[in-house]
UniProtKB/TrEMBL annotation:
GO terms for cellular component: cytoplasm. InterPro entries: P-loop_NTPase, Sulfotransferase_dom. GO terms for biological process: sulfation. PANTHER family: SULFOTRANSFERASE SULT. Belongs to the sulfotransferase 1 family. It comes from Brassica napus (Rape). The gene is BnaC09g11650D. Residues 64-148, 165-263 form the Sulfotransferase domain. The keyword Transferase applies. Keywords: Transferase. This is Sulfotransferase.
Amino acid sequence: MDPKELPSNVRDDEISEETKKLISSLPSRIDYQGNKICKYQGCWYFYNTLQGVLNFQRGFQPQDTDIILASYPKSGTTWLKALTVALLERSKKHSSDDADHPLLYDNPHGIIPFLEIDVYSESSSPNLAKFSAPPRLFSTHMPLHTIHARSPQALSLQDCVRVSVLESRFEEFCNGTNYFGPFWEHILSYWRGSLEDPNYVLFMRYEEMKAEPRDQIKRLAVFLGCPFTKQEEDSGSLDKILDLCSLRNLRSLEVNKTGTVHKQCGAQFFFP
């Protein structure tokens, strides 16, 4: 594949000379797909993603009301983003039945962008005008120790996640050399954070979200500062949000069938 056809975070053509020098001093390898990755602060990144991480660390100015959704790749990130948007819109008196609901007009990843892949991918001082109204919503795949000093509030949703390719990927996963790995260190960073400061780090498990969605969404709403009233529960407000944010419903929306996110990734990629 032509390198220019790869998603921007996978390529290595947009990194500064300073970052190139740093990369030359870091452990590096080629992943199972032939992409270059390097290990920074205990976590493996594509080169361009590392540029975004460094930009974030240099330039991010947190606000007390910021909410950062942290997850390991492919562990329920899209669902968590949709639920968070729906809960906060509800707190603004925006019903899940409204025809102008944000989730009907934008992909969850467009509403809540990744710090290292989207917001800070090109600069340490991006234009954050669209995030002027609190709370600002961001997401990340970075482990907690990379963002801890700059993250006022974080949600964490984690999940245990062609023959030769599968074998190579499995080996990388077990060795901890996969993208954003090692897996267990990533998970434990947020688990420990939730124990040390439960008011600022909420740890959620994908399995529990699937098994008891009503209880978990109520727990999420409390953490976000917009708990459900008994009247709302009795009127079906909670169930409407779960239905709006179901992958079945999100997959059916035209906005999630066309267009791109992360600059070059098709929106439908997140709804197989």
